[in-house]
Design brief:
Oligomer: single chain
Number of helices: 0
Radius of gyration: 13 Å
Shape: globular
């Protein structure tokens, strides 16, 4: 079993930045993808960004150009969020996808005031 712990969320004003991290309980490489999702109140969980083991990244149109996903040598997952908007307010979840299943973090709250 692998536990993922997100951190870095908080309350910021529109236009400011935050950097989220997702730290696994042990050094593992998701062999399919590592992703950030978010879920806003009253909305379904949506995929924000993903990165493959080879470093290929994809972003939701709503965050493209503002967010950047990356991973380090310890397989910690990062999400740099710039130019934050009130619409970015949500609980952000990391997700490590393996060929045999997925692991989810508990989520970290990001609140952007207008």
């Amino acid at each position: 079993q692998v536990q993922l712990v997100e951190s870095g969320g908080g309350l910021v004003q529109a236009g400011e930045s935050l950097r989220l991290s997702c730290v696994p309980s042990r050094n593992i490489l998701a062999n399919r993808a590592m992703c950030w999702y978010r879920q806003a109140p009253g909305k379904e969980r949506e995929l924000v960004a993903s990165i493959t083991p080879g470093g290929y990244t994809e972003y939701a149109d709503s965050v493209k150009g503002r967010f950047s996903i990356s991973r380090d040598t310890k397989n910690t997952l990062w999400l740099q969020m710039n130019s934050l908007k009130p619409e970015d307010t949500a609980v952000y979840y990391c997700n490590y996808r393996f060929s045999y299943g997925n692991y989810w973090g508990q989520g970290t709250q990001v609140t952007v005031s207008s």
